[in-house]
Amino acid sequence: MATQLQTGEAVLQRVVSIMQHVLLEEVSQKRLDDALSQLASQFKADCAYIYEIAPILRDPTPTIRRIGEWHLAPAAPLTPFMPMPIDAFKRLFKWATQLESGESIQTMSGGTGLEGWSQLVNQRIMMSPIHVKQHWLGFIGLEASASGRDWTPSDVTALKTAAALLGVALLNKQTADAAPISETKYRILMEQATDAIIVMTPLGAFREVNPRSCELLGYSREELLRMGLVDFITKDSTLLPALTGDEALPDRFQAQEWLVCKDQQRIFVEANVRRLHDGLFHVVMRDVSERKHAEELQKRRSEAMVALYETSLAINSQPDVTTLLRAIVERAAKLLNAPMGGLYLLRPDNQSLELVVAYNLPGNLVGTILQFGEGVSGKVAQSGEVMFVTDYAQWDGKADVYQNSPFRRVLGVPMKVGGRVIGAINVTDSEKTIPFDEEEIRLVKLFADQAAIALTNARLIERVYEEFAKREKAQDALQISEQRFRTLTENSPDYIYILDMRTRKGVYLNRQEMLGYSAKELLQPESITFAIHSEDASRVSREWRKAIEGKLDDNPQIEYRVRHKRGHWEWVQSRFTVLSWEGDQPVELLVTNTIVTNRKRAEQALEQSLHFYLSLLDTFPVPVWRSELDTHIHFLNTSWFSFTGLTMGHNSNQAWKTSFHAEDWDKWEQKYLAAFGDQRGFEVECRLHHSDGTYHTVMVVGQPFYDLEGVFAGFIGVVFDITAIREAQQKSIELTLERARVKMLEEFIGDVSHDLRTPLSTIILNTYLLRAGGDEEKRLERLRILEAQAERLNKTVQDLLDISRLEINITELTFVQLDVNHVLTSIAQIYAPHIAKKNLELVLDLGQSLPMILANETQFHRGIANFVENAMKYTKKGSISIKTYLRGEMVVVEIADTGIGIAADHLPRIFDRFYKVDRARTTEGTGLGLAISKKIIEAHGGSIEVASVEGAGTTFSLVLPTYKV
To answer: 482 versus 109: which is more confidently predicted?
Structure first.
């Protein structure tokens, strides 16, 4: 025995020594093969192999493969093994389940399920599973000839040890291989996660965020990494105190939190928090605001249902109707967090109301009378509709009796019985002005219904007691209620029955037949389910199961088709109400069935009429469009597609947008959206792409569209092609302009002919006089006149040539950097003697350090000189000033005079060629001077501004761009 132990210990030590090379060094194919060779030699095996389930750490559906093999030469190599999914491997080889569970296999082949697996014939097999950290990583196996010795317990223990050491090496290798993949997967998970993921410090500072976090909170990643949880939590936060508290936190926990986003919107999130090894916290947050709002809404509805239930109970138990009505108003006000309320009842005159319940209203107001149309309650009673006023104190329709009351928002709801208004209930707030929401309005309407029921019941009870006194019959309240119920149901046009949900049988039916079926057929457990239309059967069955389980929706009803016993189909609407419960189990179910076939036919007729209406629009010879409440264009008729050349397959809204000229879309959209918001008609002129490839000018006209109930439903409009009209108008304008140009040319020819004839006549006359002789002094005078008239004639011709050259060769001017002040100083020196000769003052005010401009010095000098000469011509007294200064990045040159000025009706045309203000020709010139100057300034990239007061003078401002390197 001691010898066996010593032998086993020696085998174990040798196996450990063999596997250390694999464990302590990098796992490679050569090391695995060497280890198998040594293990086979140690155990005297003919072949050895290792199978790995890889890679289990990163593959959700791992496969098994052979990663090492050794066989005794010159025997045949091991049978090839193709990798296969581990599930398929376990189905093929049943013994694999033993290895997976951690059991070793030591057996002879034959009868063990190992046939077809073994590499040898008539052999002994020993396998040991490779398990590490509860992961099955594979197995190691040995096979030897059956003629050798059997495997000993020491051999089995040694092979298990080899498998354990091999498992550690394989796990380390898989972990090392999986690390970068895990990091990549983590990053991908962070980027693609639909939940917000944040890594934060115990103090709430953000260390890492994913894109969903940015989307949820409204900040960029860079902004969030400079922030922390404290920037988003509300005063009721529980998450941040939990992180920073002294008590020990579990490694994982959940929290719910209200957060405030960048746009100040509050969202409710669920957070799953996990503590990381480095002390940070990994937080996964999901926006559950909708669920939270739904829970709050459900809570409010539950509270309302409790209050309504209590009120319903009180209706039958409260003998004092006034006390009961007061309780109804008080409960309604409290559920809406409103401090005041009131209830009015219709007076016998049917034209006025009396306040019978005043809950916290100021003063002694019970008994107050309001006429129909007076105040909120009077208007509610008159119209029979709900009414809401945001600020009663500022409302023009307030009743006289409440002129000085501290009311703000007021909600009025009618009390009706059989469609007839019998009163009004209101809820009043003295502070808030925000509107009541739909749920709050629905709640008050329910209480108004309860008040109406209470009042009706009270009046019915009074009549019953009167009848009881007349007939002297003794019946208790329950019998009266039962009789009333049966009377109401038996006279109801609906089919009403009560189902016992414990037996699934009907216990009451108000009629003996429905749709031709007898009461016996209707009261069976399956009722008339066999007659329900096959397309509706599954839906009806689903709703019935919910009703039987007491899981009713807010509006528990369903509409479906039932075959009448005579064979035709009828539409039925079923409404469900649980009448009684035992604990949390429903006991009785009230089902009200209404035949709604006529309504369905009306709806179908309405739908058909809509199709007819759209078909009619489709035949219109002009393009027609229609939009709905989302403002998008949802319908375009055939004429529109023919006009634009698009096909009917295009999306209407997209086709509409792409057909507009790019420069006209904003104009159309602004006009349309403004009209849509105000629900008013509009028209806008635009350019629309035509099927001929050009843009046509069209007039788009739109009008608001209302449905059959008078509710705004969108816009409908037409498109008129006005291209021909606009072309005709353009031709008319061009004709008018041409006539104006002809007239101006005629005037110019007259002016020029005059300006040419006058000096020519003078020249001819003086030439004649020179020939006639005379003394020397007269001869010299006539020569001077000849010289002046020749100069005048030359200047007229030169002006004509200049304006022609500027128009033809304006782009050929050579520009250089120029100092404006230098040019103006030169001009001032030239014209100073002439200005002084006319007894005028020349004022030069040049700005300092002006930037250079890019100009043609000759033409620029000419352009400025024309303005100075013009000022000299029309100024009789006073001054002429030349001024420069900087306006932003532009240099401004001002030439101002104190002359006769220019009339306002002449200002728009003073730069026109050949135009002269003085049609009487009291001044010389062709009217080209200012036109030439304008051409020169515009050629320098500048503009001219003119201001003039008739009789006070004129100022020309030349605005020029500065030179930029």
So the answer is: 482
